[in-house]
Amino acid sequence: MAPHPYDVFAGVEDLVPAGVADHLRAVDLVDHHVHGHYNAALDRREFEDALNEGSTNPVPPHISMFESPLGVSIRRWCAPMLGLEPLASAEAYWEARSSFDAWSLARTLVGSAGVDTWVVDTGFVGDVLATPQQLAAAGGGRSVEIVRLETLLEGLVTRGVGADELAEAFRAELRGLPAEVVGAKTVAAYRCGLDIDWSRPTDDDVRASAARLHDEGGKPRLTDPVLIAFAVHEALACELPLQVHIGFGDRDLELDRADPLHLVPLLRDAPGHVPVMLLHCYPYHRQAGYLAQAFDQVHFDVGLAVNFLGAASSRLIAEAMELAPFAKQLYSSDAFGLPELHVLGSILWRRGMGLTLGEWVRRGDWAESDARDAVDLIARSNAERVYRLT
Amino acid sequence: MAPHPYDVFAGVEDLVPAGVADHLRAVDLVDHHVHGHYNAALDRREFEDALNEGSTNPVPPHISMFESPLGVSIRRWCAPMLGLEPLASAEAYWEARSSFDAWSLARTLVGSAGVDTWVVDTGFVGDVLATPQQLAAAGGGRSVEIVRLETLLEGLVTRGVGADELAEAFRAELRGLPAEVVGAKTVAAYRCGLDIDWSRPTDDDVRASAARLHDEGGKPRLTDPVLIAFAVHEALACELPLQVHIGFGDRDLELDRADPLHLVPLLRDAPGHVPVMLLHCYPYHRQAGYLAQAFDQVHFDVGLAVNFLGAASSRLIAEAMELAPFAKQLYSSDAFGLPELHVLGSILWRRGMGLTLGEWVRRGDWAESDARDAVDLIARSNAERVYRLT
Amino acid sequence: MAPHPYDVFAGVEDLVPAGVADHLRAVDLVDHHVHGHYNAALDRREFEDALNEGSTNPVPPHISMFESPLGVSIRRWCAPMLGLEPLASAEAYWEARSSFDAWSLARTLVGSAGVDTWVVDTGFVGDVLATPQQLAAAGGGRSVEIVRLETLLEGLVTRGVGADELAEAFRAELRGLPAEVVGAKTVAAYRCGLDIDWSRPTDDDVRASAARLHDEGGKPRLTDPVLIAFAVHEALACELPLQVHIGFGDRDLELDRADPLHLVPLLRDAPGHVPVMLLHCYPYHRQAGYLAQAFDQVHFDVGLAVNFLGAASSRLIAEAMELAPFAKQLYSSDAFGLPELHVLGSILWRRGMGLTLGEWVRRGDWAESDARDAVDLIARSNAERVYRLT
Questions:
Q1: Which residue numbers of A have CB closer than 8 Å to C's CBs?
Q2: Which chains would you list as touching C if contact means 3+ CB atom pairs under 8 Å?
Q3: Which Pfam families does this UniProt record tie to the protein (chains A, B, C) (predicted)?
């Protein structure tokens, strides 16, 4: 990897022992949950809207979305990559950014993330985003893919698979996934909430629900908890590592129905050797850490929120280090669209881990080697293990 | 404003850069959710009971409520305003306090808060408390008012408005509010919980519920979720900025039914341009920050808890800065009765903001101007905007 | 007490004023919720399994449970007590530990906790654990006991008490408890969840539920919410201080059904003068602090989690100091089996309290005497009061 065009420990050098800092500067990450960057230029309205996970602009018209934790952090860390001073004004940032075409911007930002493996979720508005191959070209390293279970099942319905054949066709689909697919993801939290009956549906149950879905006509949208539970159980039966959207997301979500504790019946029932990855988790990251501690197969990350919390993300990263064994946490940016997010996630995570572990090392609570070992697990080894990235 | 008789950054001068500290020392606040101070002297039992939000005394008889986070902070910050050393003993504090009459005490304490606009909730035991005019006289600046929806509706029933006329009479009431009323508040959390059916009731629904309320006789107490949902929807339809009690309150409350996530169906349904202010929010302030980030009209504060957490409030204030755009948070003390609470809320908020933003500025995460801008929004500009305080 | 073979403020001396540090080093604790240590040697697999509260091993086979917050803290603090350097390797630790017999190990570790009163829960797998007398012999000081309500009731059924006699027999049992029993505990959270109907059952209700329990045959396992509510109400009626398992525990638990807010109907109904102690509470410790502030009889601790969070426990301890009056919090280790846990709980609590209170004293928020008084209450006086340990 090229040296990073920034020092993630600028301003906190005295808080992070050199052995910890150097290790965190150098480690290549596996970003285990990420989307492509935009492959076309944006206007400023589109850019500001993209700074808000909720997809609408929650601030009044006269206030810029730059006036948010994420906005300040982009000015702090990404401005220097565009040739500006850290914390250059929003106007200067926008002007400098506008001088790049989409590809150069992606090369400059995504390429500075220090990520060598991108585990890409291709299930959502994939056509305005870089493909996994394009992302890997911009960012360096390689890409693998995660298939979205709801999209897969909707695709079968769209292609005319009847209610009687749906269960078997879905199983065939899972068995025939291409080699670059290393896992599956469910967005049950967006579709029906996680507080559903997680018992395994029979093929007859699937038939009845699928018939209703067909009757609705039009472009199918999967919200039936029976079909979603079916898809999840089938993925686990195929030993596909399973990602589950948890917590923080956009306003389509009912946040309390995205609490990971709703998954306990599924986790008790599921095979203990098929990894389950709880994504994002904020503000339920302590609950996620508990589940990762209690259940053999559970892992978690605090992606997305790390970016959106900006300078405050170091406390979130510290809280994520509270309970779970170090083998149970993974790194992700959950970057979507803006290439700023691909690199910022990496910077804030390295900085936050350095502040958290650095304090413990300085105080004698941990050895430097403990810190390096935990970093290696979370930065990449755990992801390599659960997705079998050899 | 007169200079404050304390330095909010005493003991932490080296942690808060001067440009941030001076700005936080000087900014005049809008206290957007506050009650009057007591307008008569208290005995010590009454004083100690007032130190507990729960309205009963939760500590054993031989222990003083001074032995609480709030109690220590009053000794720390208010003792010097009464001519004592910081952290003077509880006995010395009580003795000095007793030498003031209610009005002098209010002038001394409320008048040191550095607040120039008091947005006063007059809906609860208003007769033992200073009026908004008296509060503004003691504290300096001006006052405006918030009308409590449940009180307004109960008042109509008490005045003999029949079930058939209640809906229309309530609408007339809202249309005829005096100019000093800048918003409405609901205490649904205390009356029926927030986990109700938030769909908009018809006038027929209101009639049926009102008939039941009349049948109960006596002084009416509004707990019917249909009538409460009606009142809330009517206030929003009148474009009245809406305050909602969330989280921490006294023991009448079921705390989990005061989680702001229960409001999602209402927020989706409500007009996006009428501001909704989530009050207090602890320990659901992260959920509140999420809603403020996701929904155009949602704002929040962490008042009340700032006072009750005392020295620990700086972490709460930091957590409140995690996710929401800076245009979506407001300052409040939620002081009630004790004039100590009117000034302490201001001191602890300034100190907590200084520690939070000061760390980020020292580390280079934020520019000083970013800190000043965020302070101005939260301290007053957001309140001026949502309540149209021109 | 013998001087501790460690300094709990090593590495943080400059953060904790001497007057606070010395007091925290010296205070003898009442460990108000603890179990016996193992009275036989373990093999390494058993030891590593015991490092996980969930009772299974949640990490992959090639990773040691030492790679967890708890594991690092054991190497940090217990290694020196076994003659090793702080943070000696896991292998060296295991080797040194293996050279001790169970009794010597207990004497060495438990005996260094600085606890002079052990309030022992004897209700769970008591036969592989030291008795309260053995624990007191190893640890120094004295022991008293907590009876587990579910175990008591199951014992009556096992001994053949019929459904008609069960209610009265249980009351007789409670009235006849030996003098060393100072309180009762319910594990309702494990048996039926805390979200049950907490109204007081009649003897007829008990009869009907008991008949069903008898019909099940075999070794009875009490999960019926009617019988559990009955047992709890009877204990309160006998004025037995009541411990309630809350929050963090093993995977048998549904964590969200162990939220203390489910207890509100019981707390409103219960006699205000019989102490209720909420145990563990993580990650619901803020909710527990709220209840301790709002309800006269409610107390809480953050035991168990303090050990499992390791170096991160100082933030948990700080959060536990947010809202509750100081008379409402207690110290516990909730150590079970591994004698490391009996001493580590004490060390981490002293260190965490020193960091929390030390910061406030350094900043002038608290006086040193405030810190010492709060420590005395939480370390021992509150436990002496609620359990009448005279």
A1: 259, 261-262, 264, 268, 286-287, 290, 292-296, 298, 318-319, 321-328, 360, 362-367, 370, 373-374, 377, 385
A2: A, B
A3: Amidohydro_2
Q: How far is A250 from chain B (nearest CA, A)?
A: 6
Quick check: B57 pLDDT over 80?
no
Task: Flag whether the ipTM exceeds 0.90.
Answer: yes
**pTM of full prediction above 0.95:** yes
Asked if A76 lies within 8 A of B259 by C-beta distance, the reply is no
User: Which residues are bridge partners to A21 per DSSP?
Assistant: none
Residue C119 host element (H or E): strand C115-121
Q: Supply the pLDDT for residue C3.
A: 47
- Rounded to whole angstroms, how far apart are CA atoms A217 and A212? 9
Of C375, C347, C378, whose CA–CA distance to C361 is shortest?
C375
Contact C67 A360 (CB under 8 A): no
Instruction: Give CATH 3.20.20.140 domain extents, chain B.
Output: 15-41+101-386
CATH superfamily of A15-41+101-386: Metal-dependent hydrolases (3.20.20.140)
Using N-to-C axis directions, what is the helix angle for C69-77 and C90-98, rounded to 10°?
60
**Which chain C residues are Cβ-neighbours of B250 within 8 angstroms?**
294
Residue of chain B nearest A57, judged by CA positions: B296
CA separation (Å) from A249 to A238, A254, A334, B29, C145? 28, 9, 11, 33, 48
CA distance C225 to C243: 17
Give chain A positions within 8 Å (CB) of C52: 293, 325
For residue range B261-309, what is the model confidence (pLDDT) as tens digits? 999 999 999 998 999 999 999 999 999 999 999 999 999 999 999 999 9
What are the residues whose beta carbons fall under 8 Å from the beta carbon of C208, sequence distance 6 or more?
C163, C226
**Burial of A219: CB neighbours in 10 Å, binned 0-12, 13-18, 19+:** exposed
Sheet order of strands, C29-34 included: C29-34, C115-121, C142-148, C181-186, C242-246, C276-280, C298-300
At C182, which helix (H) or strand (E)? Answer: strand C181-186
